[in-house]
Amino acid sequence: MGIFSSRCPACGQTPLFEGFLSLPKSCSECHFNYSQIDTGDGPAVFVIMLAGLLVTVAALYVELRWQPAYIIHFAIWLPIGFALPMLMLRPAKAWLIHSQYRHNAHEGRLHKGNVDKQNEGK
Ligand SMILES: [Zn+2]
C-alpha cells in the first residue's frame, strides 16, 4: 500500500475517494471514521506551487530555446497548466491523508498536564 494510494489508509481495501476528491463518512470495510481526517487546503497549495514551478520552468525553457509565437505558448501551457494540477491533486490529497493517519495527526489541543505546568509559574 503506497503512500499515494487511493485506498483506505487503515485497511487498504476500499477506495479512499467518493467522487473526485470527496471522502466517504467511513470505510465500508474497517469502519475507519474519515471525519477525523482534514487535509484542508494543503494538497491544493502543494500542487499549485509544484505545478506552477514546473510549467513556468518549461515555458521559460521553450521560450529561450525556440522562441515560438505567444499563441503557441497559450496553446501549450494553458491546457497543461490546467491539466497538471488536476492530475496531481488526487495523489497529493491521498498522500496527506495517509500521512495524517500514519502520524496520528489531528488539531492541536491543550492537555490538562500542560495547562497545569503553565500555571505552576504563576
Ligand atoms: Zn478501511
Question: What does this protein structure show overall?
Answer:
The chain has 122 residues and is mostly helical. It has a domain at 39-105. The chain has helices at residues 42-66, 70-102, 112-120. The chain starts with 41 loop residues before the first helix and ends with a helix. The model has no long low-confidence stretch (mean pLDDT 89). Zinc ion (ZN) binds at residues 8, 10-11, 13-14, 27, 29-30, 32.
Low-confidence stretches: none
Strand content: under 5%
Backbone shape = elongated
N- and C-termini, Cα separation: 50 Å
- Biggest sheet: strands, sense, closure? none
Q: Averaged pLDDT, please?
A: 89
C-alpha Rg (nearest Å): 21 Å
Helix content: 40-55%
Instruction: Determine the number of helices (DSSP H or I, runs of at least 4 residues).
Output: 3
Order of helices and strands: HHH
| Number of E-state strands | 0
Q: Structural class of the helix and strand makeup?
A: mainly alpha
Oligomer: single chain
Bound molecules: zinc ion
List the helices and strands and how they pair.
Layout: H1 42-66, H2 70-102, H3 112-120
Helix pairs in contact: 1-2
Bound molecules: zinc ion (ZN).
Label this structure with key terms:
122 residues; mainly alpha; 3 helices; binds zinc ion
